[in-house]
Structure prediction request, 70 residues.
Amino acid sequence: GEPLFVATRQPGAGTGAALQGELIGEPRAYSRSVSGKLRRQSTSVDSGLRAIGGDYSQAAYGVGMEISIK
Prediction:
């Protein structure tokens, strides 16, 4: 399979520099600090999500379609 996260850029100078990559094909930026401000995406709406952490070495995801509930 393909990895969930693919890094697309290494951090610049400084300890608070953001790393960039793609999570399941969606662009993401992350750093050691947590902030609601999006650096390069000024037109994006703040979702309120601040951090997700964990060990993703065995992570998996799936999509369910056409699920009926009776």
User: Anything to note?
Assistant: DSSP finds no helices and three strands in the chain.
